[in-house]
């Protein structure tokens, strides 16, 4: 695929659900992909499109982690790429776009609770694990990761 075929733009929370549900909440009810804080003014959602079809998303929430001292931080949540497009750099593209946006707003740190299966992806993107693994019921083992911008 040609990178010029992709478009990344800021989107609404509702637009993320088209990717969140099949990737992050398969087999669960639609309301399971609605996150607390999705519609706050401080929350930012990005989507990556191939032609007119959304294929990947990431959301950033103004949320402070108690073990990160930097006041200028956001939490990455809902990072997902449709299965047919995984492994093609789509996730990296939309994540870099979001990170650049936050950096332009003087945000210094991004952190996330990463699924165990996504650790390698985040490490390749410059995130580092801190703390101990933990379990989120019905979803699985997670690790807290952070990146300085």
Tell me about this structure.
This protein is of the alpha+beta class and 149 residues long. Helices cover 22% and strands 38% of the residues. A 7-stranded mixed β-sheet has the order 1-2-3-4-5-7-6, sandwiched between helices. A hairpin with a 3-residue loop joins β6 and β7 (140-148). The two termini are 29 Å apart. The mean pLDDT is 93.
What is this structure's SSE topology?
Layout: E1 6-11, H1 13-24, E2 44-50, E3 53-61, E4 73-81, H2 90-104, E5 109-115, H3 119-124, E6 128-136, E7 140-148
Parallel strand pairs: 4-5
Antiparallel strand pairs: 1-2, 2-3, 3-4, 5-7, 6-7
What would you say about this model in short?
With 149 residues, the protein is an alpha+beta fold. The protein has helices spanning 13-24, 90-104, 119-124, and strands at residues 6-11, 44-50, 53-61, 73-81, 109-115, 128-136, 140-148.
């Amino acid at each position: 695929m040609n990178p010029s075929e992709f478009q990344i733009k800021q989107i609404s929370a509702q637009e993320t659900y088209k990717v969140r549900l099949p990737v992050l909440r398969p087999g669960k009810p639609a309301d399971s992909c609605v996150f607390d804080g999705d519609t706050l003014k401080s929350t930012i959602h990005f989507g990556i499109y191939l032609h007119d079809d959304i294929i990947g998303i990431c959301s950033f929430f103004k949320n402070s982690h108690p073990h990160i001292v930097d006041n200028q931080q956001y939490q990455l949540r809902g990072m997902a790429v449709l299965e047919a497009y995984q492994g093609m750099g789509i996730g990296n593209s939309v994540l870099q776009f979001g990170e650049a946006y936050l950096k332009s707003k003087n945000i210094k740190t991004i952190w996330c609770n990463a699924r165990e299966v996504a650790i390698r992806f985040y490490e390749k993107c410059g995130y580092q694990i801190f703390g101990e693994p933990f379990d989120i019921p019905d979803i699985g083992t997670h690790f807290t990761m952070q990146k300085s911008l």
